Amino acid sequence: MTTLLRLLPVAIVVALLVSAALPTGRAQAAAGPAWGLVASTCTASSLAANRAVGITVVEVEAYWDRYMPARAGAVDTAYVADLRARITRCLDAGLRVVLGPGMQYPPAWVRSLPGAALVDQRGKRPTNGAIDTVFSAAVRAAQADYLKRLVTDLPAKRIEAVRVGTSTEGEIGYPGPNEAGDGFLQSWWAFSPAAQQGTGLAAGTARSPMPGWIPGQKAWQGKAVTAAAARSWFLWYSRALTSAVKGQHDALRAAGFTGQVHLPSPGKGVLPADLTTAANALLNGTGDRDGSLGRGLNYTDQFAVLAGSTSKMVIDLSGVDDASAVLARRQSPAQDACRSSDPSTSVAAGTPVHLWSNLRFARAQATRAGLPAIGENPGPPAAQTGGTSYSDSLAEQVRRAPGYARSCGLSALLVAFEWALDDPGSGVTRDDYRRAVLG
């Protein structure tokens, strides 16, 4: 949903923080969820309206291309001053602030850095504007410098969290299905010189364990490729994303930021049974139920890796009452709401997790890893947020999302978007949200 924020004249994202007293696991839900909105303008009128219905924490979205538009080392001082003023206004109004750095909007000079282009197995580049934030040392260094400047230029000691991510939506993941732009559905975005040969490879990231091997090929260097080898290749591919996320986390820590780090995480991720099917087919596209395989979303592994290598990491699950929830609650029995047994049953053979909602399965993986979680709904189905013909309307999302947040033990729920709740045509208002929260 972050892509849509580019359409706003002033891009401020509202979020709710996990309490520092509830850092991990199920304990985070002891006090119940906190409630918030996405894309607040942080004006005096919006602050008053949001606080009137119990909104106490906001996330302010920055834009890298506006912050450092010309070249490395140079900032737009007017933009920085405006961003700092908006953050300070929120803080002085008694609101806590989470910062979205907007690294999904790289300046043109970053796009021209060595190795900045993402490349799939056919030499194609993504049409959605994604750059290589995973393997390119030059891009990762530019990101680290930008994050350092944010911490230095803004009132970072008063900011409670910063978002990180690798995709054009500001979430974890490689580009999705058909983002090579020519109808080819199964792209693997790890075929740059850095990823394959280690040329210009980011520190802490491994190069391909099978250089030159293309998923689906039955042989490599004259030998048959086994299912175990294909699985190992995918593990490398998906863990490269965690290396990139950890790199952003470490850059923030090196700059002196001590608050929480939020990781927006879309969809359900790869299911264990589907990964087995995919590996047995040597990653030829079989078993990629929803594009998670090519996007590298291996939450059953990635969340555990991040839990062991980062501090104050919070998973932001962006599928609260998405289309998968609509389908899941049509099952008999319904499969949408989280259950206390989910962390163990979600990885047990025979559990029909393919019928679960995205939120339910991904939440179980965060719990298994001991990571706290917040969540957000998709927003209006027609507003470029991945809606389908059977998606709930925004009004229905607002009505149902608080229940999902409670059943899944989320520390906070973010409702998208403030501008939609201000739109008389949306069919939902802040008061509707308040009533849904109160039950």
UniProtKB/TrEMBL annotation:
<feature type="signal peptide">
    <location>
        <begin position="1"/>
        <end position="29"/>
    </location>
</feature>
<dbReference type="InterPro" id="IPR017853">
    <property type="entry name" value="GH"/>
</dbReference>
<protein>
    <recommendedName>
        <fullName>Glycoside hydrolase family 42 N-terminal domain-containing protein</fullName>
    </recommendedName>
</protein>
<keyword id="KW-0732">Signal</keyword>
<feature type="region of interest" description="Disordered">
    <location>
        <begin position="371"/>
        <end position="391"/>
    </location>
</feature>
